[in-house]
Amino acid sequence: MSNSSDKPLIRLPSQQPHLVAARRALLDARRISFPDLEMNGTRPDIHRIIQVGGVLANFPGLQFASWFERKVKPGPLKDSDWFALRKIVCYSSARWQDAVGIRTALHLVERLMSNSIVAWWDGSLDMRFLQATWQRMDWRPPNAVAFLDLQKWAQDRLQFDQRPGLQAVADMLKIPRARKHDALEDSLASAHIFRMFWQYSALELEELVPQLDPERTPDIGPIFLSRQLRAERLEEILPYLSIDFPLPTPIIPASRRVQQATSALAPEAAKAI
Questions:
Q1: Where would I find the beta strands (DSSP E) of 59-127?
Q2: What residues contact residue 133 under an 8 Å CB cut-off, 6+ apart?
Q3: Residue 54: in which H helix or E strand, if any?
């Protein structure tokens, strides 16, 4: 008689080869990363990455192993989207005086993503910039295990009508953030969201959140799940996983709020947002 511990964690129909491959990637994974980039605009052809950050955790325990943030030398700023640069990213020459070069930044991103499940929060714009930068610098993309669409998982888990913003989900789950639109802060928020989804079912989370203190310091230690619960979580995230390097999706149009905020800017600046 076979031991119950020998049974596969995830059972998938053989006629779904992409899910079988994703299952294999999940079972082999030992790291999960949460990268984030900030840019001085939305056009990879003329704008540049100006900040990188990320969190690395082991998998499936999700204990934080490391995290980093580096400001990146933006190069010439004449084509910058100044609304994004000053109002959103809070760029200033003083804050960026210790910025690193783009090659150093790419090395950090590569070390973060390599051999890990890469969990993105609306990574479409980040992907466009990474691909444009890799191509411009003849840089080989890192060898990631798989790519997880965390934002889509959050939409379905929390029953949003459309893809939610990171701040909306952080507020709902009472995850404290020191500031918005900071590469490390956004990476940390994404990592804590994933940890809560991984540790608790939808029903458990619904019961837990009202009891949480929004001023608390989120836990970064290991999460211990039973074999059965771990299998359930693995099955739950499979639909949001891709083993191929994801092609960037079209950028979501600017919201009414951003459109209103840019209406007073010069036509060229407004067009860039």
A1: 64-71, 117-120
A2: 44, 48, 49, 102, 106, 139
A3: strand 49-58
Asked if pLDDT for residue 156 goes beyond 60, the answer is yes
CATH architecture, domain defined by 14-148+221-259: 2-Layer Sandwich (3.30)
CA–CA separation, 222 and 178 (whole Å): 23
Structural contact between residues 145 and 115, judged by C-beta atoms closer than 8 angstroms: yes
**What six digits make up the tokens of 222?**
């290991």
Sequence-separated (6 or more) residues with CB below 8 Å from residue 151:
120, 121, 122, 163, 164, 166
The amino acid present at 8, given as its one-letter code, is P
Residue 246 banded pLDDT, cuts 50, 70, 90? low
Cβ within 8 Å of residue 136, ≥6 positions away? none
The model's pTM is 0.82
Angstrom distance (rounded) from CA 160 to CA 202: 13
Q: State the pLDDT confidence band at 204, using cuts at 50, 70 and 90.
A: very high
C-alpha–C-alpha distance, residues 201 and 204, integer Å: 5
Query: 209 in helix, strand or coil?
Result: helix
Q: What distance in Å separates the CA atoms of residue 73 and residue 58, rounded to the nearest whole number?
A: 30
| Residue among 210, 207, 205 nearest 192 (CA) | 205
